[in-house]
Predict the structure of UDP-glucuronate decarboxylase.
Amino acid sequence: MATRKRILITGAAGFLGSHLCDRFIKEDFHVIAMDNLITGDLRNIEHLFKLENFEFYNHDVSTFVYVPGELDYILHFASPASPIDYLKIPIQTLKVGSLGTHNLLGLARHKKARMLIASTSEIYGDPSVNPQPEEYWGNVNTVGPRGVYDEAKRFQESITMAYHTFHGVETRIVRIFNTYGPRMRLNDGRVLPAFIGQAIRGEDLTVFGDGSQTRSFCYVDDLIEGIYRLLFSDYALPMNIGNPSEITIKEFGEEIIKLTGTSQKMVYKELPTDDPKQRRPDITKARAILGWEPKVSRAEGLKITYEYFKSLPKDVLEKVEHKDFTTYNK
Ligand code: NAD
Ligand code: UDP
């Protein structure tokens, strides 16, 4: 039997990290999962614990990272990712994007592993061009409430390119646009779990601002396929991966009302500070270089995600930590 390739996945107990674990187990890798569970949940990966080619380390990657044995690949996905999470834990967000990335790049260099980092459309800030191509440099408020995330991710890209250029580490940078699917945390404050949770609990849907701001939602399976292809490509510059189908938040609310059949309505709340007014990926590069584009329509993806949320235990469905986003929006 050929020796399995060994991959370290940070943020493994989170939404995207857990789907990446599944994918690399399916591809017969030895998966070393790492997470400090600050926003993740072991239930996302508990089905993998019985496998001999899966191991888990409960560790904060912002402190020195030790992994015994060889490593072929590192996927760095550890980071708070929802606006509410990074407003609640701003320092940890800055640390995991900066110190955490530095530690993992050092590990990649030492092990001669290829490392892919999870960057984000947030590096474009509140963009003045739409759709956003990779060449757009962004419009970020460094000291606003979202700055802790945006700047950590911008620094993460810079240090990753520096390790690539100066130390010859093989690196890949994916800029992820709003992604959804099973295993999102119901109460993480992101718009899709917020709306679906509200519909299930029989509450009104909270639209921030007048709902004219846009987002472009990608189903998780499509994203994972894009990341998989990018990792095995030879492309080291940042690459957008997302679904270019753009929709206003108000229209999105209407879709959720139709999907769930709720008799509740949309209510309008204050728009959070620096909330981007438009967001849509230009995926010309992903199409040309990876031969990738999203396959799952919003209608299909939302249906699967709604079924997932409905299947959660009652106590999880009813636990709402953040009723009002604006509480954190100082
Ligand atoms: P998530 O909160 O579900 O997962 C993040 C995981 O990282 C959690 O399990 C958390 O416990 C872990 N973590 C955080 N800090 C850590 C630390 N210091 N040490 C170890 N583990 C730590 O979020 P997600 O949506 O799965 O996002 C994963 C990555 O993808 C993040 O880097 C995020 O910035 C990026 N991203 C996600 C989206 C999206 O739409 N989901 C969009 C853009 C970028
Ligand atoms: N939003 C909303 N109601 C909610 C949660 C979010 O109207 O209960 C809006 C939010 O203001 C933003 C969009 O939905 O314009 C997407 O927010 P999310 O937190 O999902 O992610 P973002 O793209 O802002 O990082």
Confidence is low (pLDDT under 50) at residues 326-330. Residues 90-111 form the longest helix (22 residues). The two ends are 57 Å apart (CA to CA).
